[in-house]
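[step 3/7] fold_predict: job queued, chain A
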Amino acid sequence: MVKDLIFCLQEAILHFVFNKSSIHKDVSECYINPPCGCTSPGQNLQCEDCVYLEACLSSFKR
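[step 4/7] structure written:
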């Protein structure tokens, strides 16, 4: 159990450190090559279920 907790903490730290550079600076960056396969966000209904777009767009504060 303790080993699992330590492993999870290590993975979280690695994820935070290495993915910090992938934080988007502009809203338009969320629409460039989303991993969910959405070809034209805002026009296809397929894009409505894209978790990546939802997370990326909700990360911006007004």
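[step 5/7] annotate
The chain has a mean pLDDT of 78.
The helical segments are 2-19, 51-58.
exit 0
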